[in-house]
């Protein structure tokens, strides 16, 4: 479920017409706060619908366009929101969601993204951090290729352990099953973007998410 940069580049340039990819920006205008984040989610869902309608089957949700004016949409929010948008439209089975995100770093992050519909994840910032650790001499005993392979293996084993604790044996059964409970999120926010997720305690909404 975890792709390195070369594997993602390969998917982006597949010549098979059955596997057409498109890059969709997963960012919002930071100064607009919660309203900006909400509008960005609406825009992202519209772009996703248009992409599926035009025959794209690999949708890459990417936050690489972050700059001084644009903040990343949290990858879990974007993935879950797009997943349920496509479910409501009846087109979810026509595409795969690939998440290219800087905020996915550890096994639990990967497990959540997969549980809310991601087909694969490219944690590019984690890879860049590993490279920086090697260049600075903090990881002296491995080269970059080995270190990235070890990281991917660790994340994969972590996801498998999470799945096994829930009694699930295959990734296909786990993907999109969203067998989690939300703690500290407003029910209306959960209903909109994390539909069918239990949320018994209530909490913050999109304004606070945008601020944080």
Question: The biggest beta sheet, please?
Answer: 4 strands, parallel
Spatial arrangement of strands, main beta sheet: 1-3-5-6
Radius of gyration: 17 Å
The tally of beta strands, per DSSP, is: 8
Q: Sum up the overall morphology in one term.
A: globular
Helical content (DSSP H or I, runs of 4+):
40-55%
* Strand coverage percent: 5-15%
* Termini Cα gap: 28 Å
Mean pLDDT across all amino acids: 96
Structural class: alpha/beta
Number of helices: 9
- Uncertain parts: none
Question: H/E order of the elements?
Answer: HEEHEEHEHEHHHEHEH
Please give the structural blueprint.
Blueprint lengths: L4 H8 L8 E5 L1 E3 L3 H21 L4 E5 L7 E3 L2 H15 L6 E5 L6 H9 L2 E5 L1 H12 L8 H22 L5 H4 L9 E2 L1 H7 L9 E2 L1 H6 L1
Parallel strand pairs: 1-3, 3-5, 5-6, 7-8
Antiparallel strand pairs: 2-4
Describe this structure in words.
By secondary structure, the chain is of the alpha/beta class. The chain is built from 9 helices and 8 strands. Helix 2 crosses helix 3 and helix 4 packs across helix 6.
What structural keywords apply?
alpha/beta; 9 helices; 14% strand; globular; two-stranded antiparallel sheet; 212 residues
Compose a concise summary of this entry.
This protein has about 210 residues and is of the alpha/beta class. It has nine helices and eight strands. It is globular and about 50 Å long.
């Amino acid at each position: 479920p975890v792709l390195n940069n070369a594997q993602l580049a390969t998917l982006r340039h597949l010549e098979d017409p059955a596997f057409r990819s498109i890059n969709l920006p997963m960012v919002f205008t930071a100064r607009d706060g919660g309203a900006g984040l909400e509008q960005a989610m609406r825009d992202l869902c519209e772009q996703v619908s248009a992409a599926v309608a035009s025959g794209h089957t690999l949708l890459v949700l990417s936050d690489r366009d972050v700059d001084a004016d644009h903040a990343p949409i949290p990858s879990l929010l974007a993935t879950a929101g797009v997943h349920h948008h496509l479910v409501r439209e009846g087109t979810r089975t026509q595409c795969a969601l690939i998440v290219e995100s800087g905020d996915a770093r550890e096994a639990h992050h990967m497990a959540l993204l997969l549980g809310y519909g991601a087909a694969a994840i490219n944690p590019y910032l984690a890879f860049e951090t590993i490279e920086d650790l090697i260049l600075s001499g903090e990881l002296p005993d491995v080269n970059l290729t080995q270190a990235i392979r070890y990281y991917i293996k660790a994340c994969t084993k972590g996801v498998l352990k999470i799945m096994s604790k829930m009694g699930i044996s295959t990734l296909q059964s786990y993907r999109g099953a969203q067998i989690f409970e939300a703690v500290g999120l407003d029910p209306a926010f959960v209903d909109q973007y994390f539909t069918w997720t239990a949320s018994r305690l209530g909490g913050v909404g999109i304004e606070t998410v945008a601020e944080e």
